[in-house]
Amino acid sequence: MLQVLIIEDDVIIGMLLARILVGMGHEVIGVEGTEEGAVAAAARNPPGLILADKRLSAGSGQAAIKRIIHTGFVPHIWMSGGPARRGDAKSRGDAQIGVADLQKPFTEQGLKAAIAQVTRLGASATAADAATIGEQAKGRPRR
User: Fold this and answer.
1) Cβ distance 60 to 102 under 8 Å?
2) Which of 5, 14, 97, 122 might form a disulfide with 47, Cβ 3.0–4.6 angstroms?
3) What secondary structure does DSSP assign to 36-64, as a single string?
4) Full-model pTM
């Protein structure tokens, strides 16, 4: 079970995501619609996974993630209703460990697959894997 923070400014989508995640056995620790709210929620209760809309009506999901992982990496899934962009893992042809892109609208199976992708290291993570994740969180390229 993961403690999940949802960063989504569409209240209905946030509620539906929360319901799906709880049905999967996860605990939703917050549904935040703003950058500031997301950062505050993560400070109060550090998440084990973040699902974040890239664009918010108040602030940016991308900026919120950057601020949250500044002190320690958290696996995260970017959700976007727009077309894949140059910086997205899909469009680059590679993916960072612990980071996935999920195109809206998506299915529950797609969400499960994205969660599995970003959490696949689990107990088998090595010190080198952890170092790689930490470097990526700080914006450094993989070795």
Assistant:
1) no
2) 5
3) HHHHHHHHHS--SEEEEESB-SBSBHHHH
4) 0.78
Answer yes or no: are the C-beta atoms of 68 and 42 closer than 8 Å.
Answer: yes
CA-CA-CA-CA torsion sign (84, 117, 46, 29): positive
Q: Which residues contact 92 (CB under 8 A, 6 or more apart)?
A: 86
Quote the pLDDT of residue 55.
Answer: 87
Residue 139: count other Cβ atoms within 10 Å of its Cβ.
7
SS3 4: strand
Residue in 81, 72, 68, 60 with CA at minimum distance from that of residue 5: 68
List pLDDT tens digits, range 46-99: 999 999 998 898 999 999 999 999 989 999 999 988 665 545 554 444 457 899
**pLDDT for residue 123:** 35
Q: For 27, left (φ over 0), alpha (ψ -120 to 50), or beta?
A: beta
What does residue 65 show for φ and ψ, rounded to 5 degrees?
A: -60, -45
